[in-house]
Amino acid sequence: MRVVRTLPTLTRAIAALRMRRARIALVPTMGALHDGHLSLVRLAQKRAERVIVSIFVNPTQFAPNEDFRSYPRTFASDRKALAAHRVDLVWAPSAETMYPEGFGTKIVPEGAALAGLEDAFRPHFFAGVATVVAKLLIQCDPDVAIFGDKDYQQLKVITRLARDLNLKTRIIGAPIVREKDGLARSSRNVYLTPDERKAAPTLYRVLKECAAQIAAAQPLGAVLDEGRAAITRAGFTLDYIEARHSETLEPIGSLRDGPIRLLVAARIGRTRLIDNVGV
Questions:
Q1: Structure confidence by residue, pLDDT tens digits, 139-185
Q2: Alpha carbon of residue 32 to chain centroid
Q3: How do 260-268 and 271-278 pair as beta strands?
Q4: How far apart are CA 264 and CA 275, in angstroms?
Q5: Contact 263, 241 (CB under 8 A)
């Protein structure tokens, strides 16, 4: 497994893969890898002969009050895990490589990026994500790129970005990987205290209960109100729990307006968790 840190070396490495007529998959990450990330790698290996994993903690998607400096960085263990999974190439650029002096271009997405979900609480976020993902797709030139369903709004934004910019890469969503108690795997779970960790699966439990009630044609507004109350009782500060159209992320009024995705974001202690389920 090669670890590449400069653009000229990356270009040569990808050209060598293309000479072998290999189909290439990219798995973009910010490191601190867990089983959820590794499930993306395994899916990538099913979709392509060669797999590139990028590791880059992207500063432009963090607001000044967010956890960029404290975001977990575990490159040595990440590298070991990827080698064990027989990844072909790790693209690990520096911030200076991705955003050299004088860098002045930003992609500002609309559509799903303005759905009033993550964008309402992190208005800087999707411009940072869209810009860095576009750069990664251009740099690595993959046939497919794998993103987890946990960041569902992000997945929809990136899918539209690739389509709108006529990039050849096909964006593929991968199922959420969960702990035995239902908590979605996340690099930020390491921030949870023992008591917070016990409460954290409430988000998934409430989502499942709400999805079942909506599928049974119970009034959507009342179901979501009950869900909000249950999450708050568990000790969370709720940002949102919403029922949205699965493709457009537009608000919906009833089961007839589906397909439906339920999305939640909430804080417990100093940790912000997100999750989603389909109805």
A1: 999 999 999 999 999 999 999 999 999 999 999 999 999 999 999 99
A2: 13
A3: antiparallel
A4: 5
A5: yes
pTM of the model: 0.94
Domains 2-174 and 187-278 share a fold: no
First to last CA, the chain: 40
| Residue ranges per structural domain of the chain | 2-174, 187-278
For the domain covering 2-174, report its CATH number: 3.40.50.620
Q: Is 37 a catalytic residue?
A: yes
* Topology of the domain covering 187-278: Pantoate--beta-alanine Ligase; Chain: A,domain 2 (3.30.1300)
Catalytic residue among 34, 37, 124, 245: 37
Structure tokens at 259: 């397909």
The pair of three-digit structure tokens given for residue 33, joined into one six-digit string = 């890898």
Q: Torsion angle of alpha carbons 71, 103, 122, 35, nearest 10°?
A: -40
